[in-house]
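Milestone M4 deliverable, item 7.
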Amino acid sequence: PTVRVLHGRSLESGQGLVHSALAEILRESCGVALDDSRAVVLAKFQDGLGEALEPLRLAGPDLATTVAALAATAAVTLPGSPLRTAEPRALAEEQTRAWSRFASALGAAGPTLIVLEDLHWAADQLLNTVGRLIARSIGPVLVLATARPQFLEDQAAFGAGHDRFSSIPLRALPPRPSARLPRPRHPRVGAWAPPR
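Output delivered:
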């Protein structure tokens, strides 16, 4: 079977959304372009996330809340969102639950690799979401995260006690072998801001 690969990169603190890596994954999954209009972004998130979650057969209110929580991780508020007035703590909990569901739905559709780059820049809220996604999602889903060596020193609790978590420390490559590494097929250009 074909493996679906989704990429997201954490931005340096203060440079973007708390969930920037997950927002990138959602945009990639739903086909949202940097220059899409607000109406197009809303439609792509609503339709794309609803379609992605179909394998879970969620009931109406659960589906609406999950789609709204996922969109909120990309700083997009969908029309009629049941989370429009949610308190920050309740919204964060719904986002965490939604990401476990989203990963499980992707896995139900087929093998999925979620690549998260630069996790050393991730905010605690993103790390909590990713940790719970790893612990709670089901199906053939692999989360591969990259981070600088000091990450596990600074975030010693990340992944601790999870039997679904492994860490492999790698030393930096010398310049010559580094130059031979393949470059991304689709380099990310520009930063995405949610439509206003």
